[in-house]
Hints:
The protein is mainly β. It has helices at 160-165, 180-199, and strands at residues 22-29, 36-41, 46-51, 60-65, 70-76, 85-89, 98-104, 112-118, 129-134, 139-144, 150-157, 167-174. 13% of the residues lie in helices and 40% in strands.
Amino acid sequence: MQNQQQRPSAIINPKYCAPYNVDLVIVRKVLALADSFSVTDVNGKMVFNLSASLMTLHDHRVLVDAAGEPIVTLHRKMTTTHDRWQVFRGESTEMKDLIFSVKRSYFFQLKTKLDVFLAKNTKEEVCDFKVKGSWFERSCVVYAGESLTIVAQMNKRHTAESMAFGKDSFMVTVYPNIDYAFIVALILILDEINQDKRQS
């Protein structure tokens, strides 16, 4: 039987799986009405963008690639107590295009813990991935299921530019053969959930 970690874990698309560590920089531009995110490689080359419009401020956001093509839609279910988000292929919000969903592990929690369920995991008895982190420290770790196997981690990045221009930036390391578009989507959902906690 093949080692699980050696096979590419293509959640969104195999082209976002690399056989080496992928380092990404996520920059949040703090705007008056909504935050926007850009995701670059360490050389500053654009990889993804997430912009919020007034029409889709909190419950519906679209991640696009460098060419502006939609990759996934992040959609918040408004009626759940655990902050459930669903991620769909392209600009769809139809269940047939669901890729994965994310919810807080517990309703009350000091440090954020998110359970991630792939679409085929309909029973949701055991999560496929878990996100643990302290948003105030701007750090988080993504694990494979209930294991201690780390697939990605994020840390705060301090730069002179971020201090001067009101930009928040994070350094994300995605481990080999892990879908980095999937990891970026998880971190953006983590941010949304923590924004909601600060505002409530």
